[in-house]
Every structure is written in C-alpha cells, then in structure tokens.
Specification:
The complex is a heterodimer of chains A (about 325) and B (about 325). Chain A contains 14 helices and four strands. With about 325 residues, chain A is mostly helical. In chain B, helix 6 packs parallel to helix 7. Classes of the chains: A mainly alpha (about 325), B alpha/beta (about 325).
Amino acid sequence: MSLTMERVKTKLGPADLKEGMTATKVKRFIGDYGIIILFVVILVFLAAVAPNFLTLNNIVNVVRQSSIIGLIALGMTFIMITAGIDLSVGSIVGLAGMTFALLAPASGGAFWLPLVAGLAVGLLVGFLSAALVVWGAILPFLATLATMAIARTAVLVMTDGQVVSGLSGPAEWLGSGFIGPVPVPVIIFLIAAIICEFVLSRTKFGSHVYAVGGNEESAKKVGISTGRVLFTVYLIGGVTAALGGLVLTARLDGAAPVAGTGYELQVIAAVVIGGTSLFGGVGTIRGTVIGVLLLGVVMNGMNLMGVSSYFQQGVQGIILVLAVLLNRWKSD
Amino acid sequence: MLIDQPPPKVFHRFIYMALSNEDEMTDVPPATPPLVALNDIHKTFGAVSALRGVSIDVQPGETFALLGDNAAGKSTLMKVLTGVYQPDQGSIELDGKTTEFPTPSASRDQGVEMVYQDFALADNLDVRSNIFLGREPQKNVLGPLLRIIDRKKMELETKRVLERLDIPINPRLKVKRLSGGQRQAVAIGRALAFDARLIIMDEPTANLSVAKVDKLIEVTQRLKDLGIAVIIITHRLDEAFAVADRFAVMRQGQVVGRFRVGDVSEAQVAHLISHGTLDDYIDDGAGIPEKRRKIGSTSSMEVVDVMATPATTNGSHS
C-alpha cells in the first residue's frame, strides 16, 4: 500500500510544479531578505521589552558604537569576497590609533598629519599582508596571523605598553563631534560604506573582486590580474581598519596598546552575518552594514535588558550560526 | 595515380599521398592566405621538448581538429597561439603576415579566442558578467576619472551574442544555475562578443554531462556560417570526425599526419595516434567513414614520417 502511494507521489503534476515554483520563490525571498527580516524581528522585540531602546539617544549611541566595527568590516568584506581573511585588523586598529594618539598633540594646526600617518600605518600593514599572500603565496589565515602579531608587537614596543591619552580638540571632534544630529563617526562610516558599495557593485575592480573569489583560475585565464586584485583588497582592509582605529582613539580621547584586540572576530562575525561567504565570491556592503548593525543592536538590547555579559557572547555565537545556516541554505 | 607501395621508413621526411587522381595529389594552394599559420614551432621546457617543428594552418571559416594523445603537445601548441607561451623557434602568421603574440591579450586583440575545457567561468557571477569578464565595457560618470561598468550594454550584447548562437539564456541568470551545454554556450559567447576570427575549443565535450556531439556540430556549423574558424583540441575521434573539415594528428610534440575528414578511417587515425605512422597499419575492413560535411573540392591525406627522427624526450606538456 505504501509502495503504491510512493509511486503515485513521484509522478509530477501541474500542482506539484506550481508548488515547486512557489517553494523556490519563498526560498529566494528568505535567502535574499532573511537577515533583514531577522533584524526587524529583533528590533520589534527589543522595542517591546526594553523601554529605552527606541529613544533617539540610544539609537544614536548604537549606530555610533557600531560605526567602528563597521568601518573595519567594510574592508574585510572585500577581502572575504576574494575567499581571503585578515586577522590583523584588530592589531591595525591598535597601531594606527596609537600612531594617531602620539602625533596628535604635537601636530599643532596640521590636524590632518596624524590622520594621514595613522592611515599610512594601516596601509603598510595591509601591504605586508598582501605581499605575504600574493608574493609569498602564504595562506591568508597564516599570513595575517603573522602580521597581526607583528603589528601588535610594534604598538607595544612603540609605547612600552603604556596608555597615551589627551588628544587635541579637532581630534576629539572626530570621535565625539556631531554634524547636525548625526555623530561624526556615523557620517564617516556612512561615507566609507557608500564609497565601498559603489566600488564593489559598479566598478570593473569590484567585478574582478567577485571573479577572483568565485574562481581564481578562471579569472586568470580571462586575463584578470588576480595578484593585483588580491593586493588591492588587503590594502583596502588595512586602510579601513586604520580608519576604525583613528575613530576609536578619537572617541576614547586616547589609545591603549591593546586596543582592538579581538576585533577581528567581531568583524568577521558581522561580515558573515551580512551574507558574505567564507568561501568567497559572495557578499555585499549592504549586507555587511546590516550585519554590523544587527550585532550592535543585539549587544545594546542585552545591556538594556540587564542580560549578564557572560551570555552576550553566546547569543552572538547563536546569531552567527543562524546566519551561516541561512547562507548555506540559500546557496544550495 | 595511386601509390600502392608503402614508403620506406628510411626517409627522413616524406609525404604519402593516398589519392587516386594525379590532380588531387597536390594540395591546391588556397586563393587567400590562411587565417592563421603556425610554422615550424619549437618549444622546450627545461629538458622536455614539448613541440618539435610543428606546422599547421587554418583557413577562414574552417573547423580544424587537433588530435593526439595526452602529452602530444596539442595544448602547448595552442598556448603558443594564444600568447600564453612564446615559441623558442618558428613563426606565427595571421592573414599571411608574420605576427607575434607576446601576451594572451595581444592574441585576443587580434581575434584569437580560447574556450577552455572547464569553460573558465565564475559560477557566482551572472551570464553577462561572465561574457565580459576581464573586458567589461565602461561608461563615464562625472567625467573620465570616474568610470562604472555599463551593465545595460553588457546585457544587450549578451543577448545579441547568444541569439547568434541560437541559444537563448537569460543574461541575468547566475552561471551556477546553467546546464553544461549552456555553460559552453556562455564560454563561446564570450569569444563571439569580441569579434573572434578564430575560436580554439579545448576538449569541448569533456565537461558536458552527456557527450552532446550533435549540439557541438550545430554550434560549429553556426560559427562557420558566421565566417569564424574553429580549432578543436580533442582526443575523441568521433568528435573530430563529426565536426571538423580537416585535422592534424600530433604525437610527441610533432605533427604526424594531416587529413581531410572522409579520406581516412577512425581506425587509421587511432593507429597513427598510438604509433605515429601508418606503415604497419593493417586494415580491419572498417573502411573510411562517410563525410559528414564535405568541404572544398580537394581531398588529401598526408602522413608525415617522424619516426626517422625519434623523440629524444617525451614531453609532459600536452
């Protein structure tokens, strides 16, 4: 009897086809918008259970705090789309921030000088990572593990492990200032995100980033300079991490040699939650922005609800697992 | 005149014309120069002689198959033609004029395109992005300093190219969603989009789930109709006999025979591939297959004796 039933079921009729198409559409919708739906559900939930969550002050605070991780995540998105990874971003935050903090008080009217120096340091570490990955043919995980250690050593040696505090007025403005009602770090993050989104989705270079991540061999065969593409993404990663370090230093009005420690994992989590594949070829800046905000909102919500910090990382982990499962389901 | 005595092996190099008509014994020189001619190409990798004086020519609109076992030198020869390798010796002629392809892009700029065995596609990108991969059209935004990809142009061109192949595929579809045949069409479309005059297809049915030789015949016929020459690199005799007008057999870095389809049997070619000569070939009575598509007025069979100059090293490059 059951055999007969199974046989009957294997014959596809119009109703089955319609059902299949509907299922595909539903899957595509959830795949494309699942993370946004999750984000909205969390927002509604937090608005309902945490009375202070939907206040303007709190929202500004969440976005401002997220902007530092967000800046670093922008560059990481480029790198991860090429199937790479950069573990050195946390150390770049520390090194660039410290360079900024050391130079800022002495720069006088040349406000831009310590900023440029900080960014140059990020570029230098990015260059080192790129050189190891492209010229040295070392796996990105190992290459950037090495640059992570080197950059952290540099900042510790530079300061002898001491904290540097007290920046000049304009430097403070970078972290705590407002333009209208919007905090400066948020504006920097938004501008950087718009530029990165434009580069990744509209330019030839952006298209090549996806091609290298999707199939590096094919990209080579059609004449794309894959080495140049890889080199550039690590430079971008270095600069955006340095920018994050500058904003963090300005926000705290000082720099600690251990600043940025562990940021790499938060950043990678945010990028993956935003839909970027660790295997490369897939990801968007829009997704990364949502991933960063989602993590920021969850952490903020848990603080408002008085959830013990012991649990917070666990919740972060659960969201990461959900996002990975969603991405995998989407790509099947 | 029929040459019925097998030629002696002591000849350093000779031509054995298996033809019945005196007029047909000599290759009639084409009125126009060949589209591409590779003359006496040598290529060595360290101690390995991958190519040892290879010469072939391809006429405009012709489908030419390059046959041979693994490590025969087929792919190396094509890499010379596509600018991936530089020959140690020999010359390349395009439209009768000597030219050089120092880089792959130099070769592509002159209308020589390659369709790789794995199709060289990025699965994560859509059809239009794959067609234009590496050569994306751009348009200015706010002057020449800021240029973005012209996706509209890419889409229109993709549609046009796939229509020429009579294989309609949605340009916005991700390549990972395509069947093997559709993926091949995208790879060929990539070559067509840039006004290819010669398309080299490396093992064109190797990555198709079912050997779609019929579809390949259709596609190569369409390319012929468009006046595009095709070189097919293959070790599959049925494929070569089905689609090619002429073919050359390579062995150990040398051409050991050149034929028009219909003048030789698959068994003879298989023997030539494995032995490098037809001297010791025993006819099994299979006969010569009917020509699938007769081209030109002259048919010829040319076996080049390379046994007198045995390979010093068996090339590992194929």
